[in-house]
Amino acid sequence: MLNYLIVFFISMVPLIELRGAIPYAIGMGLPIVPSYIIAIIGNMLPVPIIYLFARKVLIWGKDKPCIGKFFTFCLEKGEKGGKKLQEKAGRGLFLALLLFVGIPLPGTGAWTGTLAASLLDMDFKSSVIAVMLGVILAGIIMGIASAGVFGAAGALFA
C-alpha cells in the first residue's frame, strides 16, 4: 500500500510525473495495471488547477520584487513557445499538445503541457482531454521501456 502511495505522489511532482512513477513501480515489483492507473490519476490531479490558476499566478507575480523576473520569463517563454507551436500545428493544436505531453522527454509532461494550453487559450475540455491522452501515451511508452530495462537487467544479473 505504501508503494502505491509513493507512486501516486511521484506522479504528481513536476518534471518527474508519471515518467518517474512508472519505472519506480516496475522496479519495486508492483503490478503494472494498478500502478499505471494510480500514476495516471496522480499525474492528472493537478491539471485542472494548473489550467485554471497558473496563468493568473504568473500574471499576478510578474511585477513583484523577488519573483517578478522569473514569473515574467515564464510568461514570455510560454507565450512565445505557445505561439510557435500554434503556428506550426495550425488546427492540429489538440494533436500537437497530446504528442507534446505523450512523448516522454524532460520538460514535456502534463504540467508544462497544461500551462502551454492555458497560455494558448485552448478551451478547458480540449486541453484536459489532450493532456490526459498524452499522459496515457507517456505511461504506455514508459511502461514498455521500463519493463524492457528491468527485464534485461534482471536477466543480466540473475
Could you name the key traits of this structure?
mainly alpha
Structure description:
This protein has 158 residues and is mainly α. It contains eight helices and no strands. The two termini are 27 Å apart. The mean pLDDT is 88.
One letter per element, helices H and strands E, the order comes to HHHHHHHH
Provide the helix percentage: over 70%
Q: Count of helical segments?
A: 8
Q: Kindly state the mean pLDDT as a whole number?
A: 88
**What distance lies between the first and last C-alpha atoms, to the nearest angstrom?**
27 Å
Describe the oligomeric state of these chains in a short phrase: single chain
Strands, count: 0
The best one-word shape is globular
**Poorly predicted runs of 5 or more residues:** none
Overall radius of gyration: 17 Å
The profile of the biggest β sheet is: none
Class derived from helix and strand content:
mainly alpha
Give the amount of beta strand, in percent.
under 5%
